[in-house]
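Predict the 3D structure for this chain.
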Amino acid sequence: MNKDDTINTFLKRNNLDFDSWTKANIKWEILEEIAQDYIKESANLENTAKVIANAIQKFPNVHSVRWRIKESDHLLAKIIRKRAIDNLKYKDISKENYLDVITDLIGVRALHLFKREWEAIDESIRVAWTLFENPKAYIRIGDSELLQESFKFKEIDIEEHSASYRSIHYVIASTPFKRKINAEIQVRTIFEEGWSEIDHKVKYPNYSNNSLVIYFLEIFNRMAGSADDMGGFVIGLVETLHRMEGELIHTKVETENTIRIMENALAELEREKAQNNESKTIIEQLKEEVTRQKFSKDLEEQNKNHLTTLAWGVGFPGLASLAGLPPRSIELLTKAIDKKIPVPKSQVSFLTEFMKNNPSQAQRIKELLEQQSILNKDKKE
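Done. Predicted structure below.
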């Protein structure tokens, strides 16, 4: 097979027209060199893809992982298409630099269940590898503003895909072996993956431009998007119900704790009330005891005065009677008379005062004092 036949066969096999080949303006020999080198690197590419896939499988929220390395025919076809549209990135492509220029020779897909789970996967990718270029999110017209805002917050470029394709693309730089290799990681939901696979299977290679097929694939795409939305709604509903249940349990526990605290407070108040009543009783008893002690002291003082009166009222029962002594004191006074105990000077003023206040008794007291003076005199002699 000559060169032209080889090129024509290649173009037909890869659904390329001759006009694209002409516009690409690249020598077939350069493409052959790239293909030969790529085949040599295939083993390393496969091993690198496995390492990346195994790492992603352990990321949070990742449901499953798929990987592939680009077929050599698809590699060359991509180069032709990019050069045909004057993509400057492919202008000087060669065997020496194609691994740097083409970033999806390794393709890894990280699939997750719910739309919002992409954020945790995004964080894990950024931690694990260096990004070769800024991530890009492909969206469909009509996708939620909230989702687009979350992409912008993470500084992810947003592009509306003409075929309503949805996915987030990351290009990472990896060097598991001697040669640095770039790889593309695609993050999408299972529903997005299902639609994409069906779309690719149906449209390529025979019906890519069939309007009826495209129409129903668009309906299918919207259904896949609605399924993603419904999945997000269901998981949100479940989380809300769990949160409400938790709040109800928490409220119940708080109420029970509050009731227990109030019951303890009431019990404490009852104890304090009982203690207060007991304290009042004790206080009353103490007051009574103080009164009794005071009364006893007064009684003792009175007894002292009585005893003093007994001490100087020797032999004068009349004087003792005038002093207001009880009968028992008079009896004691009478006994004291026989012993002729002298009248203390401290009591003379009392008797004098008593005489002023009791004129009718003054004469008798005077006689008693005179008699006492005689006794005192006799005692001195």
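The first helix runs from residue 3 to 13.
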